Amino acid sequence: MFSIEQLQAFVATVESGSFSAAARSLNKVQSAISQHIINLEIDSGFDLFDRTGRYPVLTNEGQQLLPHARATLQQHDRLKQSAEQIFNQEQTNLSIAIDEGIPTSQLYGAIHRLLDRYPGVSFEFLAASSVDVIELVVSKRATTGILFSELDLPVGIDFESVGSIEFDVYVSSQHELAQATSPNLENLTLHRQLLIRSKTAKTSSFQKAYSPNVWYADNYYILMDLINRGFGWGVLPTHMVKPLLETGDVVRVPVEFERLTWHANVDVIQHPSCSALPIHKMLRSEIRDLITGSEM
Question: Which sequence ranges are marked TM in the entry (predicted)?
Answer without folding.
Answer: none
